[in-house]
Design a protein that fits this description.
The protein contains two helices and seven strands; from the N terminus they run E-E-E-E-E-E-E-H-H. It is an alpha+beta fold. A hairpin with a 2-residue loop joins strand 2 and strand 3. The longest helix has 13 residues.
Length: 119
């Protein structure tokens, strides 16, 4: 089995007006984007060429919006999500010492473009 081109766990997946999962998975593998629940059940999937995704002006640095099969999903990609097990205490001193690393949502959008063959 091949490695996925992109995989993120602990992703909040929302389809307005309600949350579908707070600890789901976004996976790009074999030319397809799949949105999965925390139990591994598929929420939705489509070929990457048919997916529209971006980061709207109102979204935070860890959020993206993806349209899959005509349904719009809001993805909250935590670099160190709830199930990552590496999150530190949430005190103010911990937040300011966060290391500079590429935003997870930026990595997702770049991987989606690469998989679709767009530059």
């Amino acid at each position: 089995m091949t490695e996925p081109e992109f995989s993120a766990r602990g992703v909040g997946i929302t389809r307005w007006p309600r949350s579908l999962t707070r600890a789901g998975e976004v996976r790009i593998e074999g030319g397809r984007l799949a949105l999965l629940t925390s139990y591994g059940s598929e929420i939705d999937s489509a070929p990457v060429t048919a997916v529209r995704a971006g980061r709207p002006w109102f979204a935070g640095p860890d959020e993206a919006v993806a349209t899959v099969n005509g349904t719009r999903y809001r993805l909250t990609l935590h670099g160190k999500g709830r199930d990552g097990g590496t999150a530190k205490a949430s005190g103010p001193e911990q937040r300011s010492e966060r290391p500079a690393e590429p935003e997870e949502s930026g990595r997702f959008l770049a991987a989606l473009k690469r998989a679709a063959g767009r530059r």
